């Protein structure tokens, strides 16, 4: 089975590979689409639009790979190669251990440390590509984006960036909505 971006899928934009890695290297730079739609075609959510761009760009990456790869032959090693390739388009300063600013969240001066993709951007990208793979005919059990090696790589990137940048990537706990204890709820209005 050869999985390629399907032009009839709602997750393909028929752009002919006009997306560049810079367009999806940072998901925060994407523009949203309106949720109010025209009657001819429904507009996609920001997430769906980004997922489509990511999927098409990954497909273009596979075409440009030497030798060219079909998605069916794509493995977790190719996904890792793609994620490392994206680092050249990163905007997040990741200090090396030799840097005097290693572990400082707000360094007081510039340094020559490399720019990388932020862990959160990579994590979100892998999540979107994992979903797009299955939506375009891939089987969940053979999804290279969900492979243990990819999860391990993301964990290593998170830990390295956390130490290098002096920031914590702890999961945020959701606060339970609490009723205001100072004022009891008002009784329903009598009519």
TrEMBL record:
Region annotation (Disordered) ranges: 1-49, 163-191
Keywords, ordered alphabetically: Developmental protein, DNA-binding, Nucleus, Transcription, Transcription regulation
PANTHER family named in the record: PROTEIN G1-LIKE2, PROTEIN LIGHT-DEPENDENT SHORT HYPOCOTYLS 4
Chief place where the protein resides: nucleus
Biased composition, class Low complexity, residue ranges: 26-45
Localization: Nucleus
Single Gene Ontology MF annotation: DNA binding
Keyword Cell membrane: no
Taxonomy, superkingdom: Eukaryota
PROSITE patterns: ALOG
Protein's recorded name: ALOG domain-containing protein
InterPro entries in the record: ALOG, ALOG_dom
An annotated GO BP: response to light stimulus
Organism from which the protein derives: Musa troglodytarum
Protein family: Belongs to the plant homeotic and developmental regulators ALOG protein family.
């Amino acid at each position: 089975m050869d999985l390629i971006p399907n032009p009839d899928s709602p997750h393909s934009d028929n752009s002919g590979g006009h997306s560049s890695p810079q367009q999806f290297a940072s998901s925060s730079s994407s523009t949203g689409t309106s949720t109010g739609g025209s009657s001819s075609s429904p507009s996609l959510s920001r997430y769906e639009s980004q997922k489509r761009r990511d999927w098409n760009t990954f497909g273009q990456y596979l075409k440009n790979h030497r030798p060219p790869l079909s998605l069916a032959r794509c493995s977790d090693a190719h996904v890792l190669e793609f994620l490392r390739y994206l680092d050249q388009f990163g905007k997040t300063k990741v200090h090396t251990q030799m840097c005097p600013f290693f572990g400082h969240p707000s360094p007081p001066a510039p340094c020559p440390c490399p720019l990388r993709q932020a862990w959160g951007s990579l994590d979100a990208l892998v999540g979107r590509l994992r979903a797009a793979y299955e939506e375009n005919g891939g089987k969940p059990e053979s999804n290279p984006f969900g492979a243990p090696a990819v999860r391990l790589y993301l964990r290593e990137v998170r830990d390295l960036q956390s130490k290098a940048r002096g920031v914590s990537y702890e999961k945020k706990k959701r606060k339970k909505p609490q009723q205001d204890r100072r004022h009891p709820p008002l009784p329903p209005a009598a009519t």
